[in-house]
Amino acid sequence: MKTTSWRIGDLEIKLPIVQGGMGVGVSLAGLAAAVANCGGLGVISGVEPGFQRTDYAENKARANELGMIEQLEKARQLSPQGVIGVNIMVALNNYAEMVQAAVQGKADIIFSGAGLPLDLPELVAGSSVKLAPIVSSARAAVLICRRWQKRYNRVPDAIVLEGPLAGGHLGYSLEELQTNPPQLQQLIPELVEAIAPFATENGPIPVIAGGGLWTGQDIAGVLRAGATAAQLGSRFVPTEECDASLAFKEAYLAAKPEDIILIKSPVGLPGRAIRNPFLERAQAGETTPIRCAFNCLQPCNPEKAPYCIAIALTNAQRGKFDYGFAFAGVNAWRAERIEPVKQVIADLMAGIESANF
Asked: Does pTM top 0.85 for this prediction?
């Protein structure tokens, strides 16, 4: 299968590869810039980007806003010509402030999910930043398009469709995921057809499909189903440029298929992660709720949460797995080695080009 460059508004991306945003601290400037330098679209996670700052404990919200700006500036230094985006969860209590920090840091595009970003255009008014909602269904995409068109006279510059095999928090019920989840390649044509009426003079809204993709053949499959590009997150964790600790990457290398499990997150959404003793203790009710020092996520109820997910993910980023865990897509167990991003993308592109359908 042959590929060509594609566009999000006036942004040209050479390869049909978008690196998914992964927090806490898994995809920061280092990984995003490496992907962008290879011709893909690199993405910085907007979940706790300031956790390494010295003022983080004193004023977490402000540290994260400044951390966002700093990571974008660093990524731009590492990849002056690359396309750099950020991923910001709607569920953040300081969502508006993080969006504004991304605008100040001159992000090329904001990806936004974990809720419906119905008022996102209002938060970026006057800027040229592109906007890409993250959805799990055609229905959600149409709802956003209608709202933006009616209220702001615009539509999304791109839409990310995340299927049920993705890592991290998922836009499906636990029952759906455990019984008969929809297939990504079936969801793509439904979404493409549903948003066709919202095409602009620049053409149809690009669809970026992701969730469980690992090989170039996987990418070719979603492109053939009608997607413009593919989003991969877990595939970029075992790379030299990934911003997580070596221990985090080694957790992927050590994982077996049965270690990739569904969990109930304190955020109130199901998630997919790598089984470890911390998660087993949480499932057994052996972790102890702690006083919430951050109040970072709207759906989180500290009085009922078995652990603080922000602290757990920060610990994991640093390799402290006795007190944390790693989110991962369903195929994370396929990681075999830590290698440069350049090699990963070369392998992906070779797989796309050799795909025969």
From this structure: yes
